[in-house]
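Dear colleague,

Thank you for sharing your sequence with our group. We've completed the structure prediction you requested, and as agreed, I am returning the results in plain text so they can be pasted directly into your records. Please verify that the sequence below matches your submission; if there's any discrepancy, let me know and we will rerun it promptly.
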Amino acid sequence: MNRFLILFLILSGLIFAEKEAVQITYSPSLKSLGFSYSTENYRPAQEVPCPVQPEVRYENKEVPALLDWDLDIVVDTSLILSYDADYDEQTGWIWVAVAPATDSLVRLYRSTDNGWHWSHLVSIRHTPRSLYSKVGVVVGRGDSNWVYLFVRHQIQDGDIYLFRFSFDAATWTHHAVSADADTVDGFSVCRDYRLNYGLYCGQANEGRGGNNAKLLRSFDYGKTWDAQIGENIWEGHISMGPTSFLNLTFVIAETRNGVIYQYNRDYGDPTAWSPAIIVSADTFDHYHPKFSQAFTTPDSSATAWIIYSHNYKNTGDYDVDYAVRSQVWGDTWKRNYHLAWSSILDELVPDVKNYKSAGYLYANAAYIAADSGRRDSVNVYCRWANAIGDPTSWSTRQKVNDSAKVAEAGYIGPKVVYSPGAPVLGSGVLYCRSASGGHPYGLYFDAQWITRAISEGRKTSKATFLKISSNPTISQVKMHLTSGVQEIKIYNCAGNLIKTFTNPNRTVLWNGRDEKGEPVSSGIYIINFRTAIGNFSEKIILQR
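Please find the predicted structure tokens below.
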């Protein structure tokens, strides 16, 4: 078949060849996988000595909407080594950390309007300098509200450090998470959902097996960390349920011949681990497993998915497969399901996430689909499934990247991120486009609410909807609106709601007081205004 015809069929979605399903029963030893039910290798919490000096540079720049915006929103325009994202459940604000491949720093971005516009808040680095091969973001909301930025520094063959920022980024602290002679290649981070939440970091040396991994926990917002040792873990992913269950999935170190699942029923306590179980279907190579569950209780019986990339018969033909646990068939794991598989394309580096809202039943997944050369046709797709009924029934795949743009060739992969308060339910997706050699170049955001608005010819500037008489302003703020503004919410930079105007008139005067009539202090405030096509935001400086 002519190669151009094949490419046309791929792009049109007309080729989706079926392949023979392969399922092999095997029983590797599970005694030396994951974490043991024991305190034998447990180290109590302590402040970790820090051999590097942190540096924070305040940027506070809005990212311009570039001419190649099309249906995707530009976040960063550099060659990218790593990135990660998380969001705040109350405000819907999204934070993204980007580690460039050509500069020894990490950039922290924030969107306060569901991904329409992005601000570059700060850049961080250390002395001695380092490229950062891995970053992680956790947004903590509870008794202590912080944005946590985890980075892997190359010193000592890989240390993990933590920058802790207030929501307005005006306050920050720095802490070592793991800084010793152990080699660290990768890590995964998350938090639980108590008011006095804990932080969790799983790390691994992915150059060997044996005692190559640790779970680190902090119950004082990142200041001190305990540690326990795990075995034969590569590409581990940790995720908390709505209560006390910490979930872990990983591929078997060195052999890659299986995907393992293990849970801890008591916030990572070393005496609360379950036995490790196999959730993959054969002994071929597996990569990048991710866990997600319906955000329902009890954790032990919530519908859950583990999605991973699989080398079909070790032929170099990669697919995205998954296992699923459901009460529909008696609360057990079923294996050998396929999210995306074909003989023509390679499906790679999946991500899957749940919404952090009680009772939420959906999981959203994203992955890369590439031609064999990973040059001509590389696209990002997303799908979603519902825990009610059949959790193996996924939506029709939706293309994320612009039609004329080629995604990166599977070095990092897409990331699913939510934004509560967006005009359309579901998730957004972050992804990188392709530079020479398929390497990740530029970070972009897309979501159903953005694609829908732009495709209907409504891509517009926020200045179309709102104009502020003077900024900075003294004592009060005068806003001029169009008829398209449905609601205005004013937040301080810590993410606290100050004032709401519902169904506002064309001219709105905010007198600088909160809902209780108390005057607010001088400072920066964020005006979030909801329109028929989405939410937008504008910063103002209020002076007294």
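Summary note from our side: The mean pLDDT is 88.

Kind regards,
the structure core
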